[in-house]
Amino acid sequence: MTYDLAIVGGGILGLAHAWHGARAGLRVAVFERGTVASGASVRNFGMLAIVAQRPGPELDSALNSLDAWREVAAGAGLAIRQAGCLFVARQPEEMAVLAECAAGTKVNGQDFTLLDGAGVHDRTPGITDAALGGLYSPDAWKVDQRGALAAIAAWLAREHGVTFHFGAEVSEAADGRIVTASGEWRADHIVICGGDEFARLHPEAWKASGVTTCRLQMLRTVPQPAEWRLDPFVLGGLSLTRYTAFADCDSLPALKEYQTAHQADALAHGIHIIAAQETDGSVTLGDSHHYGAGAVPDDPAKVDDLILSALNRVVSLPDRQIADRWVGNYAHLSGQSLLRLVPASGVTAVTVTNGQGMTHGFQVAERTIQELTGAQAQSCVS
Predict the structure, then answer these.
(1) pLDDT, tens digit, for every residue of 304-333?
(2) Distance between CA atoms of 221 and 205, rounded to whole angstroms?
(3) Cβ–Cβ < 8 Å for 311, 221
(4) 197 contacts 9 by C-beta, under 8 angstroms
(5) Residues 295, 228: one domain?
(6) How many domains does the chain have?
(7) Does pTM surpass 0.70?
(8) Is the per-residue pLDDT at 81 higher than 90?
């Protein structure tokens, strides 16, 4: 069997490429080594983080991807909720960054509302009394990160004619050939989605690119009481120095100085706090960041404790019992959000390198398919 487009990897980036490829009239097949993808696409918060993007091309990319998510979710029968996002400030340095960002909201085209301490508590239950205030934006959407991939794949197969090969670990992807233990297929073009597959199939190109791995720890609580709902994503001050939405604030250096002096343990493990409630009432919590191949903290349990301690200073959950812990990995390339290159003839390798594949994946895929169906693809790192 010969396909116009063969995609290696059935995570959200692979599915996004399959959707755009099918819409372009291509015969598309997806090869996924698991019965369903179980990598970074399910080990996250299910957050479409429009709120976190720097105004300009980055924000535009996220908004375009959101439009695609809405269309795909409607077709696949997948719920997508406009949860909103609340950044909570406990220190004057954090509050200064939030106030500056809110002041520029009209200029930058973002939707931010500055809240005082009372406003934060009115917005969201469980915010601790130490909160000085916060910044609210409606521009964050929640999807079911654990159920979305199966729903989208079934819809792509049913409505768009995409062929799926599950349980098919690809051992070779080059020269128009896809090889697995169960057979060989031909494809006019191959797209490798996700860092794990890229590193395994084309290790020399992976190494030459300079890309590495980020390891993160996350947790999930038991379901909270039925009457208690954490509607928006809740984030703390440590997030302000990680997200590019705040990168141009003049008050950011003072916050970085404060964090260096008073939050050294959290910075050492790349911790910033996100809390997101799932449809069953459980709350997903995290996360930490350790960079480099094989990077593992000396005491992972201590990292979990630091995450929970930082969370407890921002929001108090009715039931703090932890039901699940896991580790996630995603590709990381310092200073860049995307790696796209041609490691072999007829092969394009694509991976998001800033941990925001859910937010940008559909726009990244649209560009890839435009290159393949339009002008000849060129080797590039973007």
Answers:
(1) 999 999 999 999 999 999 999 999 889 999
(2) 40
(3) no
(4) yes
(5) yes
(6) 2
(7) yes
(8) yes
